[in-house]
Amino acid sequence: MGRLNVISGLDGSKTPFLRGVLTRSLQNCGLSFDDAFAIASKVRNEVSNLKEIPAADLKRRVLHYLDPFSEEIRRRYESPRHRTGLILVRSPDGHTSPLSRGGLRLKLECCGLNADKAVVVAAAMHDDLLARGLTEISEEDLRTRTHARLRQELGDKGASVYLSYEAFRASGVPLVLLVGGAPGTGKSTVSSQIAHMFEVSRTQPTDLLREVMRVMIPERLVPVLHRSSFRAGEAMPGAEDLRNGDAALVGGFLAQSDLVTVACEAALKRALDERLSIILEGVHIHPRALPKVPDPEAIVVHLMLAVIQQKTLRARIRGRGKDAPDRRAARFLDHFDAVWGLQSWLLAEAEKAGIPVVENSDREHTIQEIAATIMRAIVKRFPLKTGKPSPDRPQ
Q1: Both ends of the chain: CA-CA distance in Å?
Q2: Sign (positive/negative) of CA torsion 119, 125, 126, 127?
Q3: Which of the pair, 81 or 304, is modelled with greater confidence?
Q4: What is the separation of C-alpha 291 from the centre of its chain, rounded to a whole number of angstroms?
Q5: Is the C-alpha dihedral spanning 167, 169, 170, 176 positive or negative?
Q6: CA distance 195 to 198
Q7: How far apart are CA 138 and CA 142, in angstroms?
Q8: 318 pLDDT more than 80
């Protein structure tokens, strides 16, 4: 696709068409990222052979794809003036920053609203403030209004979760999320979304740490490090005698994990020295080789992702190779029995250790379940009484 310019109907000026800009615009109207990105991609494909397009024509194409959605979303897209009002949030020290509906939406999702509902509620709260003529609001007033709205949506108990979350955010206590799971279970995708929701600035895949170690340590010295997690046993001494059982699979994996755990602990230490939250994700995160968390104040949450249907896991691996050919999906599929055996062992270990297993069959449900698990840990550290006084209808 060559460069496509959008021609303004007001003055004839031209601006480049950018799928990312259209995606964000649709999110601001109330769509989830997935829906907004899908529509922006379809529109881009429709106009891929054009060099210029009138803004009115572009809007018409977008509106066509908004037909299945609510009238409110269409209204917001058709009338952007209703969603451009700037509201400043004033901190206790007097500094101000623009109120972000996206940021408010993420808080609502963290506290229990599903993604679609959170978008609608965040937009409604923003519009209500504009309708009241407010151009500036204190952080405390915004918290009060948000708490009141969550009481309407989730009841006292659900709203108290929000207060705990705000206490956690104000505390500076770092969050450490450890996400394990076999290859193909969606660890990277899920971790990326959770990092966005909880504003975690650092996400570290264990695969990347292993790659760095491979560069530093020659294969002749530590051959087990230079194999896939599910084939590491082939490099173990005496592996030929164990090839038909689980002993080589598990033994090799544990040997590799022990090595990678050293790098995991270094990554954790660096993040926590800087008081940053971090998500550490990868197959090497499992009960027998959990990295030590050097900060005793950190909130640590450990969970294991799983895909419990073989055909679904095969499809996930096959699809991942389609989207990212460098991941060499064929190699995983050629050794699928080993991948499946590794997952079975990981799940058994998680069950013995009392680590939550999250079935990743539906991404939205998975994200909600992980968010709820994190919030339970936060509420445990920052407990607040249910139904803390807050006006139901703030003026």
Answers
A1: 51
A2: positive
A3: 304
A4: 22
A5: positive
A6: 5
A7: 6
A8: yes
